[in-house]
Design brief:
By secondary structure, the protein is of the alpha/beta class. Helix content is about 30%, strand content about 20%. Helix 4 links the parallel strand 8 and strand 9. The chain has a 7-stranded mixed beta sheet with strand order 1-3-2-6-7-8-9, with helices on both faces. A two-stranded antiparallel ribbon has the order 4-5. It has a single domain, classed as Rossmann fold. Helix 1 crosses helix 2.
Length: about 220
């Protein structure tokens, strides 16, 4: 793996101090192209207080922000396989540096949504659930695909009806892959473009809470 693909722990935003994270469920947030670790961090306040959120900066500087898959040699919805592999491995290497959590979930937007599925394919037993917003599945075959096809982890897929950024072919590929490898919860938000609406954010947070705590009573963060 190229050194420039590594995750820099100095650019990870945490919802809790290091000494307060032990024994708490973890959710990892991954932004979209040209954004950074601040983009999704506001979602941390929507999760129960018992959870810990980590918002990660993608490794490649691009478009005034950062990217998981550089645009060179790729197009929207179709990252180069080597780029998808390296980004996923960088995230797994970073996760290996963290203390164990009782459960780990993933949430990402656009390229970050593609990272959610790529990570689940690379490490199918590691993640309890996924949330991909306006994302897509990368092409090709992964060793974990067969395991996912049996275990069918829950994945929330939210996207806008007017999202013209992700090509229709990539959406069709994602729909077919998720149907075959996950227990999908798909919501198409009428009139939404390539973004995250208030309703979608609330739906995603409710989905996460159900996966982690079921119907148990919880306390939201401040």
């Amino acid at each position: 793996m190229r050194a420039e693909t590594a995750i820099d722990p100095r650019h990870v935003l945490w919802s809790a101090a290091a000494e307060e994270r032990a024994g708490r469920p973890l959710i990892v947030l991954m932004h979209g192209w040209s954004d950074d670790e601040t983009h999704l961090f506001a979602l941390a306040g929507r999760f129960p207080r018992d959870m810990v959120a980590a918002s990660v900066r993608a490794p490649h500087a691009e478009g005034g922000g950062y990217a998981w898959f550089p645009k060179r040699g790729s197009r929207s919805g179709y990252p180069r396989p080597a780029d998808a592999e390296e980004a996923a491995q960088a995230m797994l290497d970073w996760l290996d540096t963290l203390p164990p959590a009782p459960s780990t979930g993933l949430l990402g937007f656009s390229q970050g949504g593609a990272m959610v599925l790529q990570l689940m394919r690379r490490a199918p037993r590691r993640f309890a659930y996924g949330v991909q917003l306006a994302g897509f599945v990368a092409g090709g075959h992964q060793a974990g695909d067969e395991i996912l096809a049996r275990s069918r982890p829950p994945v929330f897929w939210g996207r806008g009806s007017r999202d013209s950024t992700i090509p229709r072919q990539a959406i069709a590929r994602t729909r077919a892959w998720m149907s075959a490898h996950t227990t999908p919860h798909t919501v198409v938000y009428d009139g939404l473009g390539h973004g995250i609406s208030e309703r979608e954010a609330a739906d995603a947070a409710a989905f996460v809470t159900r996966q982690v705590f079921g119907h148990r009573q919880w306390t939201m963060t401040a």
